[in-house]
Amino acid sequence: GAVVSQHPSWVICKSGTSVKIECRSLDFQATTMFWYRQFPKQSLMLMATSNEGSKATYEQGVEKDKFLINHASLTLSTLTVTSAHPEDSSFYICSARDPGGAPDTEAFFGQGTRLTVV
Amino acid sequence: AQSVTQLGSHVSVSEGALVLLRCNYSSSVPPYLFWYVQYPNQGLQLLLKYTSAATLVKGINGFEAEFKKSETSFHLTKPSAHMSDAAEYFCAVRETGGYNKLIFGAGTRLAVHP
After folding, report:
1. Tens digits of per-residue pLDDT, B69-92?
2. pLDDT exceeds cutoff 90 at A5
3. Which residues of B touch A33 (CB under 8 A)?
4. What is the model's pLDDT at position A2?
5. Which chain B residue is nearest to residue A93, measuring alpha carbons?
């Protein structure tokens, strides 16, 4: 079945640096990808919708200058956490759905990225 | 607006006992509903989905869910719990229109004890 690959699975960075997380759809072209943030023992919070070839759509309260999203190709979206601070430490997950599939086609999720800012 | 509510943030069962995880939805149109499972430090894996083809949906790992329109429910069940079922479970509804994004419930942590 369709697979979404996310890299890296974990990263530790120093406060003030930037970190890039990649999300790839491996066997379908994803015009739209979604980025989520998950705090410990909580549900997934949608951060933004990544659109190929255009600007991302951010959810209310998400800083677009802090979380830069680039969707330069139909199989790759990146999330860059800029000037990271310890409060940005979290689990980030991407997902994508084959737009050419039937209406009931499910979304596939990446493995997630555990970001720790020290 | 569409939404899902998961009743019970924690459920604990004995190995071999029935598993019942509750999910109620709110939608003005026939919904697309999903159950996902998440193991620690991993992404989400689809357990099953409701697409109006059948009200009783069978998924992976012995799980199934029944869509009940009159109760606006889509509860997840498994006849006999295994230790390996311990995980976080999320019910989700697909938003209609726009980007068709998923709207998640708060999640239910299932613990299975010997």
Report:
1. 999 999 999 999 999 999 999 999
2. yes
3. none
4. 60
5. B43
pLDDT at A11: 97
- Nearest CA of chain A to the CA of B17: how many Å? 24
CA B100 from centre of chain:
18
Asked if B32 lies within 8 A of A103 by C-beta distance, the reply is: yes
Using an 8 Å CB-CB cutoff, list chain A residues near B7. Answer: none
Residue of B nearest to A96 (CA): B101
In Å, how far are A72, B19, B57, B113, B114 from B16, measured between CA atoms?
A: 49, 9, 21, 9, 9
The DSSP code sequence of B30-75 is: PPPEEEEEE-TT--EEEEEEE-SS-SEEE-GGG-EEEEEGGGTEEE
Burial B43-66 (b: 16+ CB within 10 A, else e): bbebbbbbbeeeeebebeeebbbe
Looking at residue A15, the DSSP 8-state letter turns out to be: T
- For residue B23, with 0-12 CB atoms within 10 Å meaning exposed, 13-18 middle and 19 or more buried, which class applies? buried
Q: Give A1's pLDDT tier (boundaries 50, 70, 90).
A: low
